[in-house]
């Protein structure tokens, strides 16, 4: 996977406003058509052209728009993509040596190609999800402890 494929789209102020407006409409459509199975049909306002999209793609689009509406950069990585250690470190926003430590500790699944490590994007996402859960639990425990000690 090339580094260009991981480059995030950074929204400017106009993009944030447009993404917010689009997100509202996309979420309303998905909510109003929850029971619809299959494809989503999008018709242009000024033309009779119809764009047919898989529902999953529209749900993913809603997630992308939510990040952009919040001003965050977004990149799309296929779940079965294999990343280099530098690409994975960049996605985690950590140094490459720190990532290597996580790999060696068995925190993230990887495979070796010759002497190079390759990390499946799905494994990296799983690690990120688990790490977020650990952080939330730790924050909850710290909050509870703070309240017990009467410091809150």
Structure summary:
53% of the residues lie in helices and 13% in strands. With 152 residues, it is α+β, with helices and mostly antiparallel strands.
What does this structure look like?
A hairpin with a 6-residue loop joins β1 and β2. The chain has a 3-stranded antiparallel sheet with strand order 3-5-4. The chain has a two-stranded antiparallel sheet with strand order 1-2. It is an alpha+beta fold. The protein starts with 12 loop residues before the first helix and ends with a helix. It is built from 5 helices and 5 strands; from the N terminus they run αββαβααββα.
If strands are numbered along the chain, what order do they take across the biggest sheet? 3-5-4
- What is the radius of gyration? 20 Å
Summed over residues and divided by their number, the pLDDT gives a mean of 88
Q: Sketch the major β-sheet.
A: 3 strands, antiparallel
Let me know the number of strands: 5
Order of helices and strands: HEEHEHHEEH
- Alpha-carbon distance between the two ends: 48 Å
**Helical percentage:** 40-55%
Strand content: 5-15%
Structural class, please? alpha+beta
Task: Output the number of helix runs.
Answer: 5
- Which stretches are low in confidence, meaning pLDDT under 50 for 5 or more residues running? none
- Categorize the overall geometry: extended
């Amino acid at each position: 996977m090339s580094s260009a494929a991981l480059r995030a789209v950074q929204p400017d102020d106009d993009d944030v406003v447009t993404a917010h407006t689009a997100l509202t409409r996309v979420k309303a459509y998905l909510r109003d058509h929850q029971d619809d199975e299959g494809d989503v049909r999008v018709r242009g306002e000024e033309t009779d052209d119809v764009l047919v999209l898989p529902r999953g793609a529209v749900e993913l689009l809603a997630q992308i728009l939510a990040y952009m509406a919040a001003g965050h950069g977004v990149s799309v990585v296929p779940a079965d993509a294999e990343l280099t250690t530098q690409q994975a470190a960049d996605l985690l926003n950590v140094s490459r040596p720190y990532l290597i430590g996580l790999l060696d500790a068995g925190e993230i699944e990887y495979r070796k190609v010759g002497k190079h490590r390759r990390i499946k994007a799905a494994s990296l996402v799983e690690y990120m999800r688990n790490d977020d859960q650990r952080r939330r639990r730790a924050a909850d425990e710290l909050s509870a402890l703070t309240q017990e000690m009467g410091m809150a």
